[in-house]
Specification:
This protein is mainly α. The protein contains nine helices and two strands. It has a domain of 159 residues. It has a two-stranded antiparallel sheet with strand order 1-2. The radius of gyration is 36 Å and the shape is rod-shaped.
């Protein structure tokens, strides 16, 4: 209800003292109409949250979905980071002049564990469990990251290097290390074994680093999902602020209109004596 309507209502009340009963009856009818508008304003103030609920629900659903995907990518990012670090440590141990066979074996064990964790993190995010779909089941970037990691040990001399280092690749893509075979290889063919381990570390490290880069599948996805999550959160905050402002505005308007209408009715009754 606009201010002009309030003014018109007050003017009509002021005219009652100069008008006849017929005119008074018409004015009363108009005043009651204004009262109905007051009630409508009050009702609107009470239903603002209901009117905005669909938009808020859509934003909440989109934000939840985005955060679930971001969480899955966060786990992949962490696992790939660990794989990159372990790969670098393996290269350092295999090429270092002071590393003992025991140091190399520990580095190889850490490398295999980190590689497996990276592979499994992608598998869980894409394939899910037997009862629940993966959070990134429809995400081509996650699948590409997993394929890149697997291919880092699938070409060139990788197969021969794995065998030389006592490492076998399982059907699910994970690795298994035979520490006894590695120890024997380091004793019988130290140079060849160290070179094989260094190449394996370099290949996996390069793959992980490529995926973690800002333009890589993992890095780019984490960046875009983070931006989307922040944007949706900001939109939700703005919507809530607007809802609160509209609620307050309508409540204030309803209060003013109720007061004006009550004053007008009181004035009308006093004129009638």
């Amino acid at each position: 209800m606009e201010i002009s309507s309030i003014v018109n209502m007050q003017l009509k009340l002021a005219q009652l003292g100069q008008a006849g009963q017929s005119s008074s009856a018409n004015t009363v009818g108009q005043l009651l109409g204004q009262t109905n508008q007051v009630n409508s304003a009050s009702s609107a103030a009470n239903t603002v949250s209901q009117l905005l609920a669909p938009a808020n629900q859509r934003l909440s659903q989109q934000l939840q979905s985005t955060n679930v995907q971001l969480s899955a990518y966060g786990q992949i990012k962490s696992a790939f980071g660990s794989a990159q670090t372990a790969a670098g440590s393996l290269v350092g141990a295999a090429t270092g002049k002071t590393a003992s066979n025991s140091d190399i074996e520990k580095a190889a064990q850490a490398f295999v564990a980190a590689y497996n964790q990276a592979s499994q993190s992608v598998g869980a995010a894409v394939n899910g469990s037997g009862t629940q779909a993966g959070a990134l089941a429809a995400d081509f970037r996650a699948k590409a990251a997993g394929n890149d990691l697997a291919q880092s040990l699938g070409g060139g001399t990788a197969f021969a290097d794995l065998k030389q280092a006592g490492i076998t690749q399982n059907k699910n893509g994970t690795l298994s290390l035979d520490t006894k075979a590695l120890d024997q290889a380091l004793q019988s063919a130290a140079a060849e074994t160290k070179n094989a381990l260094a190449r394996l570390g370099q290949q996996v490290g390069s793959s992980a680093g490529r995926e973690l880069a800002s333009a890589g599948n993992v890095g780019a996805s984490v960046g875009s999902l983070t931006s989307r999550s922040q944007s949706l959160t900001a939109q939700q905050t703005v919507l809530q602020q607007q809802a609160a402002l509209l609620q307050t505005t309508l409540e204030k308007q309803s209060t003013v209109l109720n007061y004006t209408t009550a004053s007008g009715l009181a004035a009308y009754r006093s004129l009638l004596g």
